[in-house]
């Protein structure tokens, strides 16, 4: 009987650890924002919507809660990024976040920008006014969750 008690204790401890680890895994939230920007006035991007759709399907299959956005103007794109940042904060420190952007991007003065479908960029100096600086969003997401992924296609 004495040999049985330590084994039973180890089994109980192993069972408790399994329950705790399973609960922790279940508590982890996976959030994704998938953006497909293809309907640009000066020339559409033929594959942006399809690429975003395929990415959204893959992320859902991997257990992510996916928020989709298509052909957003500057205000809607900014709002979606803000809302996603708030959702990531609310999801807690164990959350995993994933942002996928299929659309136009430009680089200006050492910074990278996402271009909304309503952007009218005549001169390079207008890029910071008409587009969204990627670094600002990435900095706003720093410290949000356990892992963060950004894919700009």
Instruction: From the alpha carbons, calculate the radius of gyration and give it in angstroms.
Output: 21 Å
Strand coverage percent: 15-25%
The major pleated sheet works out as: 4 strands, parallel
Strand order of the largest sheet: 2-1-3-7
User: What would the principal axes of the Cα set say about the shape?
Assistant: globular
Q: Low-confidence stretches at least 5 residues in length (pLDDT < 50)? A: 1-26
- Look at the helices and sheets and give the structural class: alpha/beta
Mean pLDDT: 84
Reading the helices and strands in chain order gives HEHEHEEEHEHE
Protein architecture, described:
This protein has 153 residues and is α/β, with parallel strands linked by helices. It has 5 helices and 7 strands, in the order αβαβαβββαβαβ. Strands 2-1-3-7 form a 4-stranded parallel sheet, with helices on both faces. The protein has a 3-stranded antiparallel sheet with strand order 4-5-6.
């Amino acid at each position: 009987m004495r040999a049985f008690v330590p084994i039973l204790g180890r089994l109980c401890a192993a069972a408790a650890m399994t329950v705790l680890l399973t609960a922790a895994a279940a508590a982890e939230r996976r959030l994704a924002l998938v953006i497909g920007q293809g309907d640009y006035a000066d020339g559409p991007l033929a594959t942006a919507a399809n690429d975003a759709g395929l990415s959204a399907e893959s992320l859902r299959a991997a257990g992510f809660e996916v928020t989709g956005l298509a052909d957003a103007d500057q205000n809607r794109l900014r709002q979606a990024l803000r809302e996603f940042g708030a959702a990531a904060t609310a999801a807690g420190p164990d959350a995993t976040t994933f942002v996928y952007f299929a659309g136009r991007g430009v680089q200006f003065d050492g910074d990278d920008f996402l271009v909304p479908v309503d952007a009218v960029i005549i001169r390079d100096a207008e890029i910071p006014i008409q587009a969204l600086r990627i670094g600002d969003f990435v900095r706003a997401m720093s410290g949000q969750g356990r892992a963060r992924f950004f894919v700009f296609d």
